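Quick illustration for those who missed Monday's session on complexes.
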Amino acid sequence: MNPFYEQMPVSVFERMSLAAARHGAVNLGQGFPDFGWPEPILEAGGQALREGSNQYAPSRGVPELRKAVADHYGRHHGMELGPDNILITSGATEAIAASIFALVQPGDEVVIFAPAYDAYAPLVRRAGGVVREVPLRPPEWRIEQAALETAVSTRTRAIVLNNPHNPTGRLFTPEELESVAAVARAYDLLVLSDEVWEHVLLDDRSFTPFASLPGMGERTLKCGSAGKIFSLTGWKVGWLVADSAVIDVVARAHQFLTFATATNLQAAVAFGMREGDAWLHPMRRSFTEARDRLTAGLKRSGYAVLPSASTYFLCVDLSASGLDVNDEEFAAVAVEHAGVAVIPISAFFEEEPARHLVRLCFAKRPETIDQGIAAMDRAMRLLARR
Ligand code: GLN
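Prediction with glutamine bound:
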């Protein structure tokens, strides 16, 4: 077998979700909500299953969804888009894979900010590319233009940006985004902008799409996710938004990854994208409350919690919490002996991983969060004694 895959570890999300199931632990690891999906979308999905087509969708996506996604960004961000700017994919991870395969040739360099979603670097390497990692430093996790510039060379093809940012929960400021845009302009780069968390905004914050920055419309490949917008992560419906000439090429990569995405789920998501703007505010409010509930509970146990402005996640600083364990050791004790799965942050780095942070998902009902808080309290007692 190909050693690239033989030697690759199982994804940290799969590993921790399997461990949670094996130990009967509450799963605050992999990011998925246990509440909050809009009933009308499920109804629309059910109706589409019974009355709609149950055959292949067009490879680029059903026309009504491509139009609904284009219109959604027109409404929310004033972007002028049509269906030719949209490619529907089986989740945003597939959009990222297809984009990287369509963009990267052997020897091309791709700049990634670390910590980073764990799919980016292996996909770049599988395409024959070379990963250049730019560290973001905790607790601010700021993008520094000077650090970015040291990673860029004449071989650089693209920058992968993730905003809002998983796992830190940071929403980059317009100034930080502009510093990425300045580098993209100066070095003639494309930017793969993973914006799947664009609507999961806490405390009434607002989001700046990267493509809205001067000159970035034609340079940006934006990934979006119905899973995140509608709390339906298992549907695996995502998309890519880009210049139509870019979409034309990425669509060729997509056609031999999944070919097309579940037809009836696309129909239901199209309904949601047309009708669902009213669901966004209640979703943000309930996730903001959930973040606050988890933060307060963790602080009562003595954990140092980093702020989170977006996504489903917050990070806990283990060393600032007075614990003398690394993230993997903490995660193992937490899931095996205390009853809670968390994500060790070192899995989000290629070089020089931070090993003192774990990520917790707060997109959960109050009772799930309370179980998680009780289990984190047990973990603190088990480990503080060491
Ligand atoms: N985006 C999810 C997370 O960060 C994981 C997605 C996956 O498991 N493929 O938890």
